[in-house]
Structure formats: C-alpha cells, structure tokens
Amino acid sequence: MFNEEYDVVVVGAGHAGSEAAAAAANMGSKTLLITMNLQNIAQMSCNPAMGGIAKGQIVREIDALGGYSGIVSDTSAIQFKMLNKSKGPAMWSPRVQSDRMRFAEDWRMLLEKTDNLDFYQEMVSGLIVENHKVVGVKTSLGVEVRAKSVVLTNGTFLNGLIHIGDKNFGGGRAGERAATGITEQLVNLGFESGRMKTGTPPRVDGRSLDFSKMIEQPGDVNPEKFSYLDTTKPLTEQRSCHMSYTSELVHDLLREGFDRSPMFNGRIKSVGPRYCPSIEDKINRFADKDRHQLFVEPEGWNTCEYYINGFSTSLPEDVQFKALRSVVGFENVKFFRPGYAIEYDYFPPTQLKHTLETKLVEGLYFAGQINGTTGYEEAASQGLMAGINASLKVQEKEAFTLQRDEAYIGVLIDDLITKGTEEPYRMFTSRAEYRTLLRQDNADFRLTPKGYKLGLASEQRLRRMEEKQAKSEAFVQFFRDTSVTPEEANPVLESKNSALVKQQDKMFKLYARPNITIEDVRKFEAVENYIQANDLDREVIEQTEIQVKYAGYIEKEKNNADKLNRLENLKIPADFDYSKLKSMSIEARQKLNKIQPVTISQASRISGVSPNDISVLLVYLGR
Ligand SMILES: Cc1cc2nc3c(=O)[nH]c(=O)nc-3n(C[C@H](O)[C@H](O)[C@H](O)COP(=O)(O)OP(=O)(O)OC[C@H]3O[C@@H](n4cnc5c(N)ncnc54)[C@H](O)[C@@H]3O)c2cc1C
C-alpha cells in the first residue's frame, strides 16, 4: 500500500472520518483510512447516545443519503426515545442510548465490509502540498502516501491538552495521545487556527449504585429506529436510564475544589460548549438553583459502567469523587474514570467552501470537530459530505451541496462557512428556518433520490422510499375522497369533545382537526379496512397523519423557501473584489472579501452585512 496512490485519504476514524471513508469508497474512489488507533474506530468520546433534538434529524438525513450512522445507531441501541412527541412533528427527534463498545465494533465491521477501502494505523504528522494542491500525507514514522484528495477529521486530537484539577497533560482523549504537526504546518500554509475546549463527566461502577433511590427513565413503549432500511429492527428489549439530583451539599463540596479548577484559575482560556456546561459552571452561573438533574446512563447491554450525564467536570478527581458520593443513590459509588476537560485546535470554518474543501489548498477537506463543531452527529454529517465531495472532485464530477431548505446538514454547513463559530457549534431546531420541511419522518423523501443519484443510496433504499411515498399519498387521497356520516362520526367526535357534524362530511376535514388522531379515525370502518387491505405500516400511517394535519404549514414554508431560492440562484462571480464597492460599509467589504459568498442569499446571511450592503451589491451586479 505504501507505493499506491489513493483517490481519497481520510485522516482520523472518528464519526466524521468513518462516514467520509465509507462515502468515498462506496462512490467508487480508492480510499485509505489512516487513524491513530484502529481499536477506537467511531469511538464515542463522551456520552453513549446518538440523536436527540435536531441531532436525531441529522442521523436520519445521513441514513437517507446512504451513510452508516443510522444503521450502527440501530444495531448498537439499548434504548430508544422519540423526544418532543407532545409537540408538532417538526420537533420530533429520535434518540438512542447506545452500547458504546458495540457501536465502535459495528462501525468497524461495516467499514471492513466496504469495497475500495484500506486501513492503516498511524499518526499523520503532515500533508504533502504542491502548488497549493494536496498530493498526499506523511506519517510520524516517515511513511508518505500519495493521494488525489485528503479529508482531515482530527477531532479533539490536534495539540489536545487534558485537564483534571491542577494537572494537565497532552492527549486527544483520555488514554490516547495528542496529534502534533498538522496545525503548525497548516498555519505556515496560511490557515488561521484557534482553541476550543470540551469536557466529560466521570464514569462509575453501576454495581456500587443504589438505583432504588433514583427515578427510572425507561425507553418508549413502542420504540422506533433510525434507519429507513428494513435490515435493522426496532428494539424488543431495552435498558432503562435513571435520574437523580445534586443538592446544596454536593454544590458546597464541589466549591471546595474551585481554587484548583482549571476553569476558574485561568489555565483553560478557550471557549467550551455553551449548552453542555460543566457542573462547576452550572453552580457558578445558576447560583440560585439548589439542585441540578443527573441522568445515569448505562454504557451497554452487558457492562456495569455508567455515564453520569450532567456532571461533566474538570475539578480534581478527589473533589469529583467526594461530591458524587453525596448524591442520592451514589453513597457508595466507585469510579471507573474521572471526568476531565480537553483543549484542542480547530480551524475557523469560514476558510472552507460549501463542499468543505479548503479555500487555500485544493483537494484538502476538513470535517467534524476540526471545524469548530461539537457532537457525533454534526461530525458524521460533515464527514459524509466531505467524503462525497472529495470523491466527486477526483472523479471530475459536479460538487454536491445541500441547501438550507433541503436538510439540517445544509443548514449546518452553510452556518459554519458563512458565519463561522466562536464557540463549539451544535445543531438546534431553531437554527433551521424551514424546520417544518426538515422533519425526521421525511429525510428519505428529501434525500434518498439524491443519495441514489450519487451512487451512495442503494436501489433497495430508493424503492422503499418510493413505496412509502406512493402509499402515503394514496392514503391522504383516500381521506380527501371518502365521506363519513354523522351517525358514524359523532360518537367519535363526542368522545374527543370535538364539535359534532350535522351532515355527511369528508374524512379529511375531521382528521385535520387538532385533537383527532389516527386511533380515532380508525374507528371508521372504511379507514380500518383500507389500512388492512393495503397493508399500511406505522411509517406510512404517520406520514399520512402529518400530511393531513400540517398540509397548510408545509405549503407555506415551501413557498417561503422558494422565494429564498430565487435569491440563492443569484450567483456572485468567483474572487469578486468587494473593496471597490465604496458605498458599502467597511465591515461588510472586509467580511465579504474574506468569506467570498457564492450567492446573494449567502452574502445576506453573513453577520455585519446589512440589507443596505446587499442593495449596493445588487446594483453593482446589475440586478
Ligand atoms: C472529553 C470530551 C468531551 C466531549 N463532550 C461532548 C459533549 O458534551 N457533547 C458533544 O456533543 N460532544 C462532545 N464531545 C465531542 C464529540 O466527541 C465529538 O464532537 C465527536 O467525536 C467529533 O467527531 P470527529 O470525528 O470530528 O472527531 P473524533 O471523534 O475526536 O475522532 C478523531 C479521530 O481522528 C484520529 N486522529 C486524530 N488526529 C490524527 C492524526 N494526526 N493521524 C491519524 N489519526 C488521527 C483520532 O485517533 C480519532 O480516531 C466531547 C469530546 C471529548 C473528547
């Protein structure tokens, strides 16, 4: 392999790297995945869980395009929950608790079964760049591998520095060494880099916990799953999580270590994820709160290791231990691993194009935490897009990007490259202006045809999606066409305190009422007969319900998106020099020159660029 030239070399086999390698190889590119430790492929560095609010939608999107994260999330799940089920379907977010070891193993097995993919365990210490074009990588042992494109997915490893209390040491993750060389070389090549930080809670021995004192958190009664393929199945058995609380006493014990906290004594200077604060940060910032929730999450089917969600900390280990022993149910707790914080290098993502290719070095792509994001799902989706585009570039095909109204992945990448990020970026539903369109139930409709066209999504995947679409459309039409008599409708309506009908009416109208559910309309003989005769499954029924109840909202959002897309089609010439637009604000000129937006719409999303600046640009471009 040392003498071979690869189409795509992926550096790092975390969530981003694994998806990137799978995508490139599945699209027919000769791919090499180089990572520091082949035992830790797709290792979950922090909590053993996939999905959650907005992140669950991303996993569904990855799956719909033909990535592996959804499949592995299903095969390694120990508990499933559909979050936000009491809200509208745009907010429904699937989440699984995962078997950490199985997750990594299943990923590795899937990758090993992937054609065109080679593996190599070593640290990449530099890139080979000729005339602003990447042509390969160098490893710390001095091995040189030639490549037509390179995807960097180094996660938290670049000059990683781990902190526990007043101790710190180099590392990319506890027990794994940091990666050196790459940042320094990229900075010499003209890249801007920064530092971010994140943290993780202690892991404990479940045999030392008293679960009878905690509140049980079981999974859903009717669990669903991530993958649209029928090769994975919903769970038939699940493991529960538990909940406990910190207390004033726990907070006082934690405060005893504040003078040795790297967060408070100036040792950690970089910014951490705002929405995943450490326990010391929560006590400090929300001093009026006398308790904080802790979720006690099993790390797998068979292990007794537990993850203490909500207790992320870099306080000294003795302080962590003493405080945790004062939590109800934790009186005899034994530690597996203490919590810690880590600082690492990242590269502000405004240095990237929509394809995740760097603007400075041709053929070089960045994906995952290296771009300033946080989270497995955010990383995996970027990896998928970088792998796809690296492959397309080598094959001299048109680039593949997703727009903001097409996918959360489109929102994520557009936000990163247009606005940049000063703190670890995580996805939220509120970041998507078209979230009614970007639901977890329809990611296959939105993306599987695109994935199929790319050669990533299989024929089987496409057929399943087409069948679901045809069946749900026909069922919606059935409700539009079929009437129900007052005799049949009124007992059902009365039971739901819904206004009665005086004459025959279309079922669609009744079903569209907010408090009338599928269980209610199934009481009409014609509906139940239709379901049985057409063998409709849960997915088709759910899809139909959404189409009936939310048709108006969906239509409105589609119209808004269409309006935006008109602006999206107004292209700006490449390397446009904004300094000549003197009537534009200086800030806008500087930012536009730096980011080089591709369309007027993208330009309008850059912070510091006002509607007035956009008008100046439109006039100049003769619009
Ligand atoms: C302590 C800690 C706490 C975290 N807390 C949270 C949290 O609370 N919430 C959250 O959403 N996310 C959290 N994360 C982040 C989450 O783990 C990442 O977002 C996600 O794993 C990023 O995926 P990635 O693929 O970009 O990188 P990683 O998963 O970090 O994978 C990087 C891979 O690249 C390899 N690698 C790196 N450099 C080289 C090199 N030079 N040569 C060869 N291989 C290399 C590594 O061995 C590793 O396999 C935390 C991470 C850590 C370490």
From TrEMBL:
Residue positions binding NAD(+): 272-286
Gene Ontology BP term (one): tRNA methylation
SUPFAM superfamilies xref list: FAD/NAD(P)-binding domain
Residues of the tRNA uridine 5-carboxymethylaminomethyl modification enzyme C-terminal subdomain domain: 548-619
Residues annotated for FAD binding in this entry: 12-17
Keywords: Cytoplasm, FAD, Flavoprotein, NAD, tRNA processing
Main location: cytoplasm
Example of a GO cellular component annotation carried by this entry: cytosol
A Pfam family matched in the record: GIDA
Gene Ontology molecular function terms on file: flavin adenine dinucleotide binding
The keyword NAD is assigned to this record: yes
Localization (cell): Cytoplasm
Cofactor(s) this protein cannot do without: FAD
HAMAP family tied to this protein: MnmG_GidA
Subunit structure as annotated in this protein's UniProt entry: Homodimer. Heterotetramer of two MnmE and two MnmG subunits.
Record family assignment: Belongs to the MnmG family.
NCBIfam families recorded: mnmG_gidA
Descriptive protein name: tRNA uridine 5-carboxymethylaminomethyl modification enzyme MnmG
This protein's encoding gene: mnmG
